[in-house]
Write a structure and sequence with these properties.
10 helices; globular; alpha/beta; about 25% strand; 4-stranded antiparallel β-sheet
Length: about 325
C-alpha cells in the first residue's frame, strides 16, 4: 500500500443475484465506490433492503461480487483465490448484528476466542490462554468468566465478546453490521464508546452499517447514504447531517423521531401527502420532488462541496434544487 492510497478502496462494486421463479435478476449493490482511511470510520446508512449488508459482505469477500474492485492494504481482493482470501482474513473481520445467534451455544467463551487464534496461528499455542485474557480485558470484561457459555451473559456482554473475537487476530479493518441494533439504548451508548476507544488504541478502520442515524452520527467520520443498491450521497458526517442534499437523505433525516409531539405532528401535517420516490424494481417511497428517480438510469455524480458528493438529477453543477418543505 502506497502512502497516498487509503486502507480500503472500493470502486464500482456490484452484486447481482440471479433470476428466480420468473423474477428478473436483482442488482443488490450497484456501482458502489468509497474510501476508508486508516483509523477512520465510514457509516453506511439506508433503509432495510437498500443493499448495506450485501455491500459489507461483498467487501469482505463473504458474498461474491459480480463487478468492481475492492483493494485492502493495496491488494485487490476480488482477484484473489480462496486460499489468498483466507490469508487476508486476519486483516479484515466482521462484527455481526445479533450477538444471540453469532456465538456458538455449545462452546465456552474461552473456546470461542481461541478458535480464530488457532485457525490463523496468530499466537503460539502456549500463549492462547494469555491472549484470550487480553481480549476480554480489552473489551472491558473480566477474564475469569471465560469458562462460561454464551447463554450466561446479557446481550451487551455477548456483543463485547463478539467484538473481542473479531479483534483476536489484530485486524486493520472491521465491518460492523448493525452492531447495536439488538441491545437497549443504554448498552448502545456503551458499545459505541467501546468502539471509539478500540479505534483510538488499535488504529482500527470501520465500515459501520446501520439504519439508526443518531448512532451513525456518533460513530462515523464520513457517511454514505444508500438507496436501491446505490450510494446517493457521500460526505463528511457533519456536512451530510447538517446540509443534506439528496431528497432521500433529507427524508431519512426527517423520519428521525422528534421528542416534541406537537412539533412532530406539525411536521407530518406539512409533509403529507408526499409524492413517491420510485427506485429499484419499482418500489416506492416518499420523494419531495415527485420525480421518478429510476427513469433514465443512474444520475451523474456531482461534487457539491469539499468532500461532499451526490447522485441526483436535481443537483447539476451550480444549480440549487427546489426548496424543500421544512428546510
Amino acid at each position: 500500500m502506497t502512502n497516498a492510497e487509503p486502507l480500503l478502496r472500493v470502486r464500482d462494486l456490484c452484486v447481482t443475484f440471479p433470476a428466480r421463479r420468473g423474477r428478473p435478476p436483482v442488482r443488490a449493490v450497484d456501482q458502489v465506490s468509497f474510501d476508508i482511511e486508516a483509523g477512520r470510520t465510514v457509516g453506511l446508512v439506508g433503509e432495510s433492503g437498500s443493499g448495506k449488508t450485501t455491500a459489507g459482505r461483498a467487501i469482505l469477500q463473504l458474498q461474491p461480487a459480480t463487478g468492481g474492485s475492492v483493494r485492502l492494504l493495496g491488494r485487490e481482493l476480488t482477484a484473489m483465490s480462496r486460499a489468498q482470501v483466507r490469508g487476508m482474513r486476519r486483516h479484515m473481520q466482521l462484527v455481526q448484528q445479533n450477538p444471540y445467534s453469532s456465538l456458538h451455544p455449545r462452546m465456552t467463551i474461552a473456546q470461542i476466542l481461541a478458535e480464530p487464534l488457532t485457525v490463523h496461528r496468530s499466537v503460539p499455542s502456549q500463549r492462547i490462554a494469555e491472549r484470550v485474557a487480553e481480549l476480554m480485558t480489552l473489551v472491558g470484561m473480566d477474564p475469569a468468566v471465560v469458562p462460561r457459555y454464551p447463554h450466561e451473559f446479557s446481550g451487551g456482554q455477548r456483543q463485547r465478546i463478539v467484538i473481542a473475537r473479531a479483534l483476536a487476530v489484530n485486524p486493520d479493518f472491521v465491518v460492523c453490521d448493525e452492531p447495536v441494533s439488538a441491545v437497549d439504548v443504554r448498552t448502545q451508548a456503551q458499545i459505541v464508546d467501546l468502539l471509539h476507544d478500540l479505534q483510538d488504541k488499535l488504529r482500527l478502520s470501520y465500515l459501520f452499517i446501520a439504519h439508526d442515524l443518531a448512532v451513525v452520527r456518533a460513530v462515523a467520520h464520513r457517511v454514505a447514504v444508500m438507496y436501491g443498491g446505490r450510494i446517493v450521497e457521500l460526505g463528511d458526517a457533519a456536512r451530510v447531517y447538517d446540509s443534506p442534499v439528496h431528497p432521500y437523505t433529507r427524508n431519512l433525516l426527517d423520519a428521525v423521531p422528534i421528542p416534541d409531539p406537537a412539533r412532530q405532528r406539525a411536521k407530518l401535517a406539512e409533509s403529507s401527502p408526499e409524492p413517491q420516490f420510485r427506485g429499484r424494481d419499482g418500489e416506492t417511497g416518499p420523494c419531495v420532488f415527485g420525480e421518478d428517480h429510476a427513469a433514465g438510469g443512474m444520475p451523474a455524480w456531482h461534487e457539491v462541496g469539499p468532500g461532499h458528493g451526490v447522485s441526483c438529477r436535481f443537483w447539476p453543477p451550480g444549480v440549487t434544487p427546489p426548496a424543500l418543505k421544512g428546510h
